[in-house]
Amino acid sequence: MSKFRKNDGKELPPISTASLPDIVFMLLFFFMVSTTMREVTLKVKMRLPEATELSKLEKKSLVSYIYIGEPLPAFQKTFGKAPRIQLNDQFSTVGDVQDYIIAEREARDEAEQPFMVTSLKIDENTKMGIVNDVKQELRKSAALNINYSSRQRVER
Amino acid sequence: MAKKIPEIPAASLADIAFMLLIFFLVTTTMDVDSGLRRKLPQWAPEQLEDDDTQINERNVFVVLVNKNNDLLVEGDYEQIENLRERAKEFMANPYNDENLPEKEPAELPYFGEVMVTKGVISLRNDLDTQYGTYLAVQNELVAAINELRDELAKTKFGKSYEDLEDDQQDAIRKIYPSRISEAEPKGKI
Q1: Quick one: which of B102, B110, B130, B124 has its CA closest to B180?
Q2: Which residues, 6 or more positions from A53, have their beta carbon under 8 angstroms from its beta carbon?
Q3: 3-state secondary structure of A25
Q4: Integer distance in angstroms from the first to the last C-alpha of chain A?
Q5: Which tens digits make up the pLDDT trace of B117-130?
Q6: In chain A, what percentage of residues exceed pLDDT 90?
Q7: Which phi and psi angles does B134 have, rounded to 5°?
Q8: CA B160, B166, B170, B171 torsion: positive or negative?
Q9: Three-state SS letters, chain B
Q10: CB contact under 8 A, A55 and B37
């Protein structure tokens, strides 16, 4: 029995923290792998519509985003409450869409250009007028693969 | 006497790792981007646009959405819940109904000689339609075609459409083509 009672009467040894960094690194790697970098600061409010026939956007590097929605309260003084288009980090007009698509295309490898997808993140209360204008611009700039970003609807 | 190299203190390593962890927690997002994939038609100059008069009346499934988000399907009011069934009936035309689209024979791998529908779904919306409604309608139409494909895949190959080989999927896609045409909103609805 004496084998197990060596430290009898003495104080407890401190808990070793040598493995703590390993644990934290494990957490860190988990988050690095499972999340994506936030690319732009959103300036518009969006509540995405719900749908069931979803497909995932596979290659993030081939996706360019177009946001449409009501400006956030902080910007409503200058930009009003009507839905606006946001490209990259700034408010834009319909006329800027073509330039944006061309710039996005230039930034990609030539072999990858046919697989580019434009993800439309549009608030569900937006009127179709502005959406249609954007779609026409996308057709003009031959960016035909689009993805209407939406949330998964739970089947009733 | 060999001098002992002092051990490097590792106590602060945890703090450094925590700092990195918190940085990643703040700057990244967890949400997976998913959505309804569609393909836009090629941009056509104005004068080429009026060729849809060629299509026979019975081959077109007309869906109109007005500014109050009401649906008009083939001339009568319809609830969005029933749209999927209507679209499926239209695309499949199981009893070769006179009012539903014609079929034409085609030679396809795996199926041999089959009748392929000539149906086209035409979706038109008002400029003031809400995007949410528009997407719900699109979703129902895509769902109708996906369900038909899946049913066919199950009866023919005993597997769901997603698990099929590429050329099997191609054959099924030819039988139930995803022909949803979106006319530009013009004039009154």
Answers
A1: B124
A2: B36, B139, B142, B143, B146
A3: helix
A4: 64
A5: 888 888 888 888 99
A6: 31
A7: -55, -45
A8: negative
A9: CCCCCCCCCCCCHHHHHHHHHHHHHHHEECCCCEEEEEECCCCCCHHHCCCHHHCCHHHEEEEEECCCCCEEECCEEECHHHHHHHHHHHHHCCCCCCCCCCEEEEEECCCEEEEEECCEEEEEECCCCEHHHHHHHHHHHHHHHHHHHHHHHHHHHCCCHHHCCHHHHHHHHHHCCCCEEECCCCCCC
A10: yes
Contact B149, B88 (CB under 8 A): no
Contact B17, A24 (CB under 8 A): yes
Instruction: Give the list of residues 6+ apart from residue B121 with CB closer than 8 angstroms, or none.
Output: B60, B61, B63, B87, B90, B91, B141, B179, B180, B181
- Put simply, the answer to whether A53 touches B139 (Cβ < 8 Å) is yes
Q: What is the dihedral of CA A133, A135, A141, A142, to 10 degrees?
A: -160
Contacts of A120 in chain B (CB under 8 A): 35
Model-level pTM greater than 0.80? no
Distance (Å) from the C-alpha of residue A86 to the closest C-alpha of chain B?
17
**φ/ψ of residue B183, rounded to 5:** -75, 145
> Cβ contact (<8 Å) for A31 and B29?
no
Q: Please name the residue of chain A whose CA is at the shortest distance from the CA of residue B142.
A: A53
Distances (CA, A) of B175 to B119, B128, B145: 11, 35, 10
Query: pLDDT of A62-113, one tens digit each?
Result: 888 999 999 999 998 888 889 999 998 889 999 999 999 999 999 988 888 8
Q: Do A53 and B146 touch (CB under 8 A)?
A: yes
CB atoms A149 and B25 under 8 Å: no
